[in-house]
Design brief:
About 65% of the residues lie in helices and about 0% in strands. The chain is mainly α. It folds into 2 domains: about 40 residues, no CATH class; about 130 residues, no CATH class. The chain is elongated. The two termini are about 30 Å apart.
Amino acid sequence: GKAIDRNFDADLCGIVPALVWETQEKQILVLAIIEHLYQQGMLGVAEELCQESTVNVDVDFKKPFLELNSILEALHKQDLGPALSWAVFHRQQLTNLNSSLEFQLHRLHFIRLLSGGPGKELEALSYARHFQPFAHLHKQEIQVMMGSLVYLRLGLQNSPYRHLLDESHWTEICETFTRDACSLLGLSVESPLSVSFAAGCVALPVLMNIKAVIEQR
């Protein structure tokens, strides 16, 4: 209670221009919030805000966010299919960005096959053909994966290749997909609202101190 009052009891009216709440500026603010919600995957909340604020959001604006969030949701469930289809479709654009996303997705699928044990050895060997287009850039990584096949019957978890089974690979692929997909689509990885909020948190105390000094004169 008192700690909150001491730190947050501030009159912002003298700092924030009244025009921020006027119709046009308010609509810009609402659109920024809606974009942030779409980018964070909070699609239902974004739609609800659109309806309540009577702000019309074009379908073309929503489409990339809906697609990316759908793919990310699949990745969180360790389903690589949608992400691989997307990466193959955008292969040339990703190549232009020097992205290794498609290779990393194939690598992770190969590792999933390895985790299935000896029964998946032939399937893993067959899937390894997907590495051929990336051999000149990822030769060492491919050699490591192929070398791991030697330990498949003994169990990778007890081999020098146990790091291949680390669950952190799934977190990394989600981050890589988000970064590369946003770059390809001309979107910021961090939503404009997040960036503005962070900048505001830095600037606001300074502005409040200036306001306090002026009022004391």
